[in-house]
């Protein structure tokens, strides 16, 4: 199973996935693709010997279809079987998602279906939630929707800020996403629940 990983930033989730794909793991990374040339994750992927590519969304303006056509074209050069979105901060339209139906995963920093979209940690704090977490799900045309393949929970602690809560959730993201990918790549669709 050849896995393409999409990033927009530091790529810590990408790194945890790439590092997990060794030994008897049923998958291997084939490319790390970013919509930003300055994404910190690109150098980290190169240091691990993984091919990288950049498709900048900005020249396409509001023409998402043209951006996604180029994304797909660059992607297919690396012959992936599936895609893992790892902090990829562009919304993908149905024109793209339908081509990867059942073959594209995303990690989202909330306990979906709560807090789709942005600012998930601040919204959990504002709501007075006692727990927060992250979700890995299949990507469909609807934003942060699609079948849930795994969730990890953390407590919200007194005095938490969005930053301290995000850091606590991120440590779980690095455990959850590799666990889900390993199952998914071996054809096991049972959801992973952590801790
Ligand atoms: C992660 O927390 C991920 O869950 C989130 O962006 C961060 C990326 O960090 N993704 C989203 O918000 C997607 N809507 P990373 O680049 O260090 O993996």
UniProtKB/TrEMBL annotation:
Documented EC number(s): 2.1.2.2
Pfam family, one: Formyl_trans_N
Keyword Transferase: yes
UniProt GO molecular function: phosphoribosylglycinamide formyltransferase activity
Residues at which (6R)-10-formyltetrahydrofolate binds: 64, 106
Catalytic site: 108
Segments forming domain Formyl transferase N-terminal: 1-181
Reaction(s) the record says it catalyses: N(1)-(5-phospho-beta-D-ribosyl)glycinamide + (6R)-10-formyltetrahydrofolate = N(2)-formyl-N(1)-(5-phospho-beta-D-ribosyl)glycinamide + (6S)-5,6,7,8-tetrahydrofolate + H(+)
Entry-linked HAMAP family: PurN
Family under the similarity heading: Belongs to the GART family.
Function description: Catalyzes the transfer of a formyl group from 10-formyltetrahydrofolate to 5-phospho-ribosyl-glycinamide (GAR), producing 5-phospho-ribosyl-N-formylglycinamide (FGAR) and tetrahydrofolate.
Protein name according to UniProt: Phosphoribosylglycinamide formyltransferase
Lineage: Bacteria, Pseudomonadati, Pseudomonadota, Alphaproteobacteria, Rhodobacterales
Gene: purN
């Amino acid at each position: 199973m050849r896995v393409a990983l999409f990033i927009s930033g530091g790529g810590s989730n990408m790194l945890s996935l790439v590092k997990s794909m060794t030994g008897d793991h049923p998958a291997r990374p084939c490319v790390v693709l970013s919509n930003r040339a300055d994404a910190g994750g690109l150098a980290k992927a190169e240091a691990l010997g993984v091919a990288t590519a950049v498709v900048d969304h900005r020249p396409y303006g509001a023409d998402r279809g043209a951006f996604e056509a180029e994304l797909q074209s660059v992607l297919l050069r690396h012959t992936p079987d599936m895609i893992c979105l790892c902090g990829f901060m562009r919304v993908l339209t149905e024109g793209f998602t339908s081509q990867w139906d059942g073959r594209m995963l995303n990690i989202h920093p909330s306990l979906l279906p709560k807090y789709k979209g942005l600012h998930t940690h601040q919204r959990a704090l504002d709501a007075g939630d006692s727990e927060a977490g992250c979700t890995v799900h299949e990507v469909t045309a609807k934003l942060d929707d699609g079948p849930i393949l795994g969730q990890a929970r953390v407590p919200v602690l007194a005095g938490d800020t969005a930053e301290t809560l995000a850091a606590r959730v991120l440590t779980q993201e690095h455990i959850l996403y590799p666990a889900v990918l390993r199952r998914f790549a071996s054809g096991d669709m049972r959801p992973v629940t952590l801790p």
